[in-house]
Design a protein that fits this description.
- The protein is of the alpha/beta class and 374 residues long.
- The protein has two domains: 111 residues, D-serine dehydratase-like domain (Lyase, Ornithine Decarboxylase, Chain A, domain 1); 221 residues, TIM Barrel.
- Helix content is 28%, strand content 22%.
- It contains nine helices and 17 strands.
- The strands form two sheets. Strands 1, 10, 11, 12, 13, 14, 15, 16 and 17 form a nine-stranded mixed beta sheet that branches. The protein has an eight-stranded parallel beta sheet with strand order 2-9-8-7-6-5-4-3.
- Strand 3, helix 3 and strand 4 form a beta-alpha-beta unit.
- It is globular, with a radius of gyration of 22 Å.
Length: 374
């Protein structure tokens, strides 16, 4: 069981024990509603990526607004969501290792579970696991559309692998995984547009070649918070896998729209609440959270609604803030909200969400898949 929650329903924000992972429920729900509205009538479905939230509770709220299921990256994440009542999961990653494959196959007895491959050796191992448990596993071919990470080459190599799956007695060919992760964080709108245009052409060509071989793509999955409108406009992707849109973070806040302004489609809903524990030097405040509580892989956190205050460094348990002592002051015990640079790994550092509305705690719920790396 996770440790005791840092707050109780009814607590004021100032009473929350820190560090704590805060969720502004009004903004969070508005983000979910906005994405549902943007996808309505497009023909594409939302399959949010749970590597962001790692929560069966959040997943159920997304599904209630029309999402068809959830994406995950690891079998452990799939288990946490399925055991939490989520009935449709895509592992948008390769799963390697006999034990992991047996766990994956076992989940198909409880829910609809699909997985990605990019090599015939993975197909063979997946077949063995499915046969051993007397099940059938829906399988997508992942193609590399610019990420330069996983994924077989689009076109004939992908078609050949799809045919290998289609001829299996224990697997079913479900479609393509075509995610361009690097494009999500290109700052200028024209850069993101160009990257997804290239990805769209590679994906379109592969879908057409599969059709020529009699193979239908029930799913063409991909897209993220930074580019999903480009994938929607292409008409190729059938499932949108955005995840960060529900929370947002400081990194995504740097993306610009076509007019050169920060993209404002979604609001900041996720924060790390911290306490000032030292003001021993003028212009310096130290908080009780470091990179063990807020991820810094995409930059240091921002201090919410205090643009004149800069986080200049994080160690294990401390964040150091610099500010003009002639313009403001901080007191020991003061609570501050931090906007994480990267929401996904920040969530993974906490056991509980503390849901706030109107300055008071409305609910707390666990990060079900925290640490689910296997």
């Amino acid at each position: 069981m996770p440790p005791t929650p840092p707050a109780l329903p009814g607590d004021a924000e100032e009473a929350i024990d820190t560090p704590a992972l805060l969720l502004d429920l009004d903004v969070f729900e508005a983000n979910l509603d906005t994405m549902a509205r943007l996808l309505a009538g497009t023909g594409a479905k939302l399959r949010p990526h749970a590597k962001t939230h790692k929560s069966a509770t959040v997943a159920r709220l997304q599904i209630a607004r029309g999402a068809v299921g959830q994406c995950v990256q690891k079998v452990g994440e799939a288990e946490a969501l399925v055991w939490g009542g989520v009935a449709d999961i895509l592992v948008s990653n390769q799963v390697v290792g006999a034990a992991k494959l047996r766990r994956l196959a076992g989940l198909t007895k409880l829910a609809s579970v699909a997985v990605c491959v990019d090599d015939a050796e993975q197909v063979w191992a997946l077949e063995q696991a499915a046969e051993a448990l007397g099940t059938r596993i829906e399988t997508l071919v992942e193609i590399d559309v610019g990420m330069g990470r996983c994924g077989i080459a689009p076109g004939p190599p992908a078609v050949a692998l799809a045919e290998r799956i289609a001829h299996s007695r224990h697997l079913g060919f479900a479609g393509l995984q075509a995610y361009h992760g690097l494009a999500q964080h290109l700052r200028r709108a024209e850069e993101r547009h160009a990257a997804i245009a290239q990805a769209a052409e590679a994906t379109r060509r592969t879908v057409e070649q599969l059709a020529q071989r009699g193979l239908h793509c029930r799913i063409v999955g991909g897209a993220g918070t930074g580019t999903f409108e480009e994938e929607l406009a292409s008409g190729i992707w059938t499932e949108i896998q955005a995840g960060s849109y529900a929370f947002m973070d400081a990194d995504y806040a740097q993306n610009l729209d076509a007019a050169g302004r920060p993209v404002g489609t979604f609001g900041h809903a996720l924060f790390v609440l911290a306490t000032v524990i030292s003001v021993a030097r003028p212009g310096v405040a130290v908080l009780d959270v470091g990179h063990k509580g807020v991820a810094v892989d995409r930059g240091l956190p921002l201090v919410w609604q205090m643009p004149d205050v800069r986080c200049v460094g994080c160690s294990d348990e401390h964040a150091t803030l610099h500010y003009d002592p002639g313009a403001r002051s901080f007191g020991i015990g003061q609570k501050l909200r931090l906007v994480p640079g990267h929401c996904d790994p920040t969530v993974d550092r906490h056991d509980w969400y503390v849901g706030l509305r109107g300055g008071r705690v409305e609910t707390v719920f666990p990060v079900d898949a925290r640490g689910a790396m296997r």
